[in-house]
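Private note to self, pasted from the team thread so I don't lose it. Backbone tokens:
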């Protein structure tokens, strides 16, 4: 597919491109990660689990209970793929580590 010049892109396409470029550099903002997290895992799960850090291609997620820990662990691969796609992380996200911990409200 032929790539369009910057002046031919709509504003939405340009913003998405900039966000994608930022994500590829491993710099994903907290707000952007929160939105993507909720989109990927759903509103219910996002109330019980929150990403807290991204280190060495591993996303650390605090979960408020063992039932949610189990539920999200069974969906780990789909969550990694969904976040990588939405945030343009590619291989910058390879693993998710869930742990029982404090889940702060938005």
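Design output:
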């Amino acid at each position: 597919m032929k790539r369009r010049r910057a002046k031919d892109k709509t504003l939405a396409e340009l913003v998405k491109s900039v966000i994608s470029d930022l994500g590829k550099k491993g710099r994903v903002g907290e707000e952007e990660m929160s939105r993507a997290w909720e989109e990927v895992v759903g509103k219910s799960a996002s109330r019980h689990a929150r990403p807290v850090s991204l280190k060495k291609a591993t996303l650390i997620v605090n979960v408020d209970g063992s039932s949610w820990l189990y539920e999200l662990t069974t969906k780990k691969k789909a969550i990694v793929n969904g976040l990588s796609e939405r945030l343009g992380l590619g291989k910058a996200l390879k693993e998710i580590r869930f742990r029982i911990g404090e889940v702060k409200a938005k």
